[in-house]
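Appendix C reproduces, verbatim, an entry submitted by the partner laboratory led by Prof. M.T., so that reviewers can inspect both the input and the predicted structure.
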Amino acid sequence: MAAPVTVVVDAQDVGTPIAANFTGLSFEVSQLVPNDAGVHYFRPENAPLIQLFHTLGIRSLRIGGNTSDRDARHLPAIADLDSLFAFARAADVKVIYCLRLHGGDPADATQTVKYIMAHYAEQMDCFSIGQEPSAYPKEVVDDRPAAERMGAAAEKYPYTAFADAWRKFEIAITAAVPGVRLCGPSVHNNAAWAQHFITDFSHGHNVALITEHLYPGGAGGKVPTPEIGRDRMLSTNFTHAYEKLYNGFVPLAASNGLPCRLEEVNNYFNGGATNVSNTFASALWGLDFMYWWAAHGLAGVNFHTGDKVAAGSELRPSKYTAFFTSTNGFNVRPLAYGIKAFAIGSHGNLLPAVITNEENLNMSLYPVKDEAGHLSLTIINKEHGAGARSATVSINETHAYSGRGHLMLLAAPAQDPAATEGETLGGGAIENDGSWNGNWTLVEPSSTGTFTVEVPACSAVILKLSAN
């Protein structure tokens, strides 16, 4: 049975602007080092990766992860930085770069900043100093299990020690490069540290951005079953984590005139959860996650990705990655389809809407109006499993729009949230070379001018209405 939902969009409202560089990816710094054949991953000749960045609408590239700081093995050489920034220029992205704080040297960090800013200032967004410092070891010997170094129970490193060290790095760096932009504190799901950081460093310390990380599901290895992991991802369980973090630091940052960015995110940490993070459920989660934070005024999010990511002190193949290297380009996973769907429907300002959902369908809805007045309505139906319902969504009061609309469906085979392949957007797949050939479907309004669209269970629809 389909559940009826009605929507009235306030197209006259100014709305909340979505930043042009909202969508980003995050990679381990180890990804900058050449592979065994001496080839860089980030290089201007990597045409499939550049095409994939363009296809997904990636405008921010964050380099960090545990291998940039506490678990650093081999930090990038000059040639590695040159290759990275040549790629960044070709892909048209700005870079957030993490400097090593734990066991690092202010002089070394300063030299890195000087080189990058002397040669690639136009491609730089800002520098973070330290990766998830709240999870640094409190003792000289870190006896915590490698897979259990994140989470409030395991994180005992004091903020005061971090602040003292951060200040030393900041003094050295800003003395050498006075106009450099810094960001922080780059901790995982820890609003208290962000509050302290804003209080201590938001004025007079070159801080241009407040950064946090978020893996709302916690440790991937602790998910009881794949079914439970997918259910959590598509439920209010995750949303409550967003609300708590947002309330804890974003309003304070805004009151100090600072934008906020989640510079490292995904669904479950330690590389993700098996048969959860790599499934179609992650596409719907990722799409909803991006819109939720955009609606709450965030400057952007960067999904941590890559062939291997740090899980504790180890590098492991990533379950939550949006794509991974294949023999002829990249194998694109479901999460990338959610990112692409956001790229299609997110140009402009998010508008308020009155939604009537009397049967409590598990769904989200986000209307966006662009500069020309065109409306894109993204509807995410998170119903899944036994008893999952489709939605019949009616968009009323659309007299400001022309007499026809266009629709695009994000879907998995058999509406299966556990699907790991075969997903499509607009009937098309994202190919190994990074290209995509999805198409719009024409939608006619009713005789009264109301647009009604069917949104199957475990799917999402983008409805585009052109202004008169």
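The domain at 2-13+348-467 is CATH 2.60.40.1180 (Immunoglobulin-like). Additional entries are available on request from the coordinating office.
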